[in-house]
Design goal:
The protein is α+β, with helices and mostly antiparallel strands. It has helices at about 1-15, 20-25, 80-85, 145-175, 175-180; strands spanning about 35-40, 45, 55-60, 70-75, 80, 90-100, 100-110, 120-125, 130-140. The protein contains 5 helices and 9 strands. The radius of gyration is 22 Å and the shape is extended. Bound molecules: 2-acetamido-2-deoxy-beta-D-glucopyranose (NAG) (2 copies). The site of one 2-acetamido-2-deoxy-beta-D-glucopyranose has 5 residues, from strand 9.
């Protein structure tokens, strides 16, 4: 069960593409390094042409200072509005306040990934009074979905078997005869 759950969580995490950069989390973030881009981390993610995709630029800021921080995406040095003149690629800004700090998240949302996106350097830019930062992410075509489909199928199968096993045990334990035995 744990294994199949772990597999499912791993798949979800890789699909969502919004995980935090492990590298930057290793260093403790001091206030002099704020604002700090937590994701992306100059990496490459996989996507299928024709599928939906969201890439979240996650920035850690100090509490109450998010107003002065500008966060936006560039596609090969062009603004997103210019890159996709339709609404195929859009940016959505969200601010979240938590006890440890404020987060600014700017989602780059693709209603449909196209082949031309695979040649673009998508850069998240953070401009504040203290500093300017940027991190890029490339999208590459997902090589083969066969392997991940097999993993999903196995995970589902294992879960189904386990669930039916427990259901069977549960039903059996409700049965008066076996109830007596169990006692
Ligand atoms: C974006 O830049 C890359 C090189 O960095 C180039 O290969 C690609 O053709 C460019 N794409 C567009 C649409 O300008
Ligand atoms: C990511 O790339 C940018 C240039 O696009 C560079 O300025 C920055 O230092 C890089 N960051 C890391 C963590 O590699």
């Amino acid at each position: 069960m744990t294994v199949s759950l772990a597999v499912i969580i791993f798949i979800c995490a890789s699909i969502s593409g919004s995980k935090v950069c492990a590298l930057s989390m290793q260093h403790s973030i001091t206030s002099e390094h704020i604002p700090q881009i937590l994701y992306p981390c100059n990496n490459t993610i996989e996507a299928l042409a024709g599928s939906k995709l969201e890439i979240t630029c996650k920035v850690l800021a100090e509490l109450h200072t998010t107003v002065e921080i500008l966060v936006y995406w560039l596609a090969n040095h062009s603004y997103i509005e210019d890159y996709s003149n339709s609404s195929r690629v859009t940016e959505i800004r969200i601010e979240r306040r938590e006890t440890e700090g404020s987060y600014i998240e700017v989602k780059l949302s693709f209603s449909e990934v196209r082949k031309k996106d695979f040649e673009i350097n998508f850069v998240c830019v953070v401009l504040s009074e203290e500093m300017d930062q940027e991190r890029f992410v490339f999208i590459k075509p997902a090589v083969s979905n066969v392997a991940s489909h097999i993993v999903v199928a196995v995970a589902v199968l294992v879960s189904v078997i386990l669930v039916s096993k427990y259901t069977y045990k549960f039903l059996k334990s409700k049965h008066p005869l076996s109830y007596e035995i169990l006692k």
